[in-house]
Automatic annotation (TrEMBL):
Belongs to the metallo-dependent hydrolases superfamily. NagA family. InterPro entries: Amidohydro-rel, GlcNAc_6-P_deAcase, Metal-dep_hydrolase_composite, Metal_Hydrolase. The gene is nagA. The keyword Metal-binding applies. It comes from Pedobacter fastidiosus. One of its GO terms (molecular function) is N-acetylglucosamine-6-phosphate deacetylase activity. This is N-acetylglucosamine-6-phosphate deacetylase. Residues 44-361 form the Amidohydrolase-related domain. Keywords: Carbohydrate metabolism, Hydrolase, Metal-binding. NCBIfam families: nagA.
Length: 365
């Protein structure tokens, strides 16, 4: 049994102070007022972070080195940084590279820790909104290809970013019926096309404002479609490079529980089609195109609080509860309560990670 003494935590948006949290068998077994220390604690326990879009960590870019070892290195590095659940992301690439990544993920899942599966960002995107993606690999999906892809994936493909305006309805319907979270992204959809896609069941939007039709006063575009919809969610990269902090600020006010954080993080890579170079605090391709971020989930949370007028509890939900709910894992991740799996972070008053607890085990940071 593991006991975390004299901590604070959020419950129903209220900060509960000076409690002891007991963990047994990997689950939170009890939460009760602390009796050992009357001194008011500055430490706060929060759920571990969930990142649904990350390309690399620990010096490994998964698509460049698609191996079980790469996923294991990414897992260990991300656990140290407080991410207790993530989807390894693959950018538009050749079928051979996709198959290698999927094969590695299937082999890895027998020993997987915090890797929850794969997010395929492409290749079924709009050539007009590619960002850093490679145009030669982009194509329209066929139903047979999607069926073969999911069959080969055998359950490891959890999320897919597509440009719905270029895909047949039967493709979208098949993905949704087979439990894949479908995200609208790298898309030039009009306001009407995006709204129709969300009404058909597409649940979310990939990195809001990036690689999509913009807001214009006569052509409202994808962001306005997300804002106006009653269910559609959106991920966002809060690094002030991909999206201005001021834009994050008003987007959160509009979307509330429908907006969640991703890092979209990459790592240095000098081989293969996606060669990322770190310049300052951003990554670029060899031609200077902005690529993935250098964010961590903790830094994204801090940016929300320090620069975007987002409360700590809301920022934490954007990094935990909301993405967990999207992928149907909110009974395991994203909340603190008796009976929940103990995937937790202990933060100090400056929001630095002092302790990571994963499946009930305390890890050194």
């Amino acid at each position: 049994m593991l006991t975390i003494e004299n901590i604070n935590f959020y419950q129903n948006d209220i900060l509960i102070k000076n409690h002891d949290l007991e963990i047994k068998g990997g689950l939170i077994s009890s939460i009760k007022p602390s009796i050992k220390d009357n001194k008011e604690s500055e430490r706060i326990v929060v759920p571990g972070f969930i990142d649904l879009q990350i390309y690399g960590a620990g010096g490994r870019l998964f698509s460049a080195e698609p191996t079980v070892e790469s996923l294991t290195i990414m897992e260990d590095d991300l656990l140290r940084r407080g991410t207790t659940g993530f989807l390894a992301c693959m950018a538009t690439n050749t079928p051979e590279v996709f198959n290698e990544c999927i094969k590695a993920a299937k082999e890895h899942r027998t020993i997987a820790k915090n890797c929850l599966g794969l997010h395929l960002e492409g290749p079924f995107l709009n050539p007009k909104r590619l960002g850093a993606h490679i145009p030669e690999f982009v194509r329209k999906a066929s139903l047979d290809e999607i069926k073969a892809l999911l069959d080969f994936g055998d359950g490891v493909i959890k999320m897919m970013t597509i440009a719905p305006e270029l895909q047949d309805d039967e493709v979208i319907e098949y993905l949704l019926n087979n439990g894949v979270v479908v995200s609208l992204g790298h898309s030039n959809a009009t306001f009407q096309q995006a709204t129709e896609a969300y009404n058909k069941g597409i649940q979310t939007t990939t990195h809001l404002f990036n690689a999509m039709s913009p807001i214009h006063h006569r052509e409202p575009g994808i962001p306005t479609a997300v804002f106006n919809h009653n269910k559609a969610m959106a991920s966002i990269i809060v690094d002030n490079q991909h999206v201005s902090f001021e834009v994050v600020k008003f987007s959160q006010k509009l979307l509330k529980e429908r907006m969640f954080l991703i890092t979209d993080a990459v790592t240095e890579c000098s081989s293969g089609p996606y060669q990322h170079k770190l310049i300052g605090d951003k990554y670029v391709m060899p031609d200077g195109t902005l690529s993935g971020s250098s964010l961590t989930m903790l830094k994204a949370v801090k940016n929300c609080v320090e620069h975007c007028d987002i409360t700590l509890i809301d920022a934490l939900k954007m990094a935990t509860e909301y993405p967990a709910k999207l992928i149907g894992s909110d009974q395991i991740f994203g909340k603190i309560g008796v009976g929940m799996e103990a995937n937790l972070l202990v933060l100090d008053e400056a929001l630095n990670i002092k302790q990571t607890i994963f499946k009930g085990n305390s890890l050194s940071n």
